[in-house]
Amino acid sequence: MIPVLHAFGKGIADTWEKSLIELWGNGIKIKTEYDKPQDPESIDATMVMVSSDPLSEPRIHLSIPSTFKDLQKYKREVVDGVHDHWIDPKSGKWTYTYHQRLFRYPTENGFVDQISYVIDKLSEVSYTRRAQAITWDPALDPSTDDPPCLQRVWLRCTEEGGVLTLNMNTHWRSRDAYKAAFMNMYALTELQRVIAERLSSKIGKVVKVGQYVDISDSYHIYGSYIEDFKGRFLRALEQREFYSDNIRRSRSLNSNHPLVRKEFVEADLELEKEAQLSK
């Protein structure tokens, strides 16, 4: 039986951390289609993560196996579409980006901007249950080697004291819990921020960013990563506090920390140069 696990936190850093602790302790061992003969089995579960205040600090977890620069580039890829020009399946290149599927979903008659639809629908009925965007293309994705993990984004507003709060659920068919999930959560909650801002501008009222719920059918740590996971993530649990002003003693960091901001700026400059070269 596949276990169904839950992780509850305030921000995305502590929610992600709790999800990995749950997965490590209670997931099952199971093979994947990507295993090499010598690889151990993956650790897997269905996971539901809930962040009550996803934009709260500390926002960055220091155990992610990537740089702050990588994180910013990935966020820009999802929210701004900086790598949509890499999509060219006929040439053996990318078959999609999340930005393309959400903002320019391909159809026989052109493209559908699902995010604009979501904003328009919420502006008409803030509590609608129809404000969703999908990524799966049944004509293309089943036959590709790397189909989308993100399947659906669903949004709904609640209201208290005349202030709207935008809540977001995301649903994933498959998820690399250790190497991808945090970057996904960071980028999708940045998209949640953008949608709240656009909705606020459209209706002329304050719209706050609310709860973020993240549901994965298969939330896994690949067997080939387990030793790295032990050395980086589990060791940090033993040796560091969740948050400390001393970065060497901390497992997390504020997103406005000078080290983070520096790499974010460098990432944006590199993306600008990349865009110029691609013209």
Inertia-based shape = globular
Kindly provide the name of the CATH class: Alpha Beta
Largest beta-sheet characterization = 8 strands, mixed
The tally of beta strands, per DSSP, is 12
Number of helices: 7
Overall SS class: alpha/beta
CATH homologous superfamily heading: Thymidylate synthase/dCMP hydroxymethylase domain
Average pLDDT confidence is 96
Residue share in helix:
25-40%
Low-pLDDT stretches = none
Instruction: Return Rg in Å.
Output: 19 Å
List the helices and strands and how they pair.
Layout: E1 4-9, H1 12-26, E2 28-30, E3 42-51, E4 60-61, H2 68-80, H3 98-103, E5 105-107, E6 110-112, H4 114-124, E7 132-134, E8 150-160, E9 163-172, E10 175-176, H5 181-203, E11 207-221, H6 226-239, E12 252-253, H7 258-278
Parallel strand pairs: 1-3, 9-11, 10-11
Antiparallel strand pairs: 2-3, 3-11, 4-12, 5-6, 7-8, 8-9
Helix pairs in contact: 2-5, 2-7, 4-5
Brief characterization of the structure:
This protein is α/β, with parallel strands linked by helices and 279 residues long.
Give a written overview of the molecule.
The protein has 279 residues and is α/β, with parallel strands linked by helices. The protein is 37% helix and 25% strand. The chain has one domain (4-278): Thymidylate synthase/dCMP hydroxymethylase domain (Thymidylate Synthase, Chain A, 2-Layer Sandwich). The strands form 3 sheets. Strands 1, 2, 3, 7, 8, 9, 10 and 11 form an 8-stranded mixed sheet that branches. A two-stranded antiparallel ribbon has the order 4-12. The protein is globular and about 50 Å long. The mean pLDDT is 96.
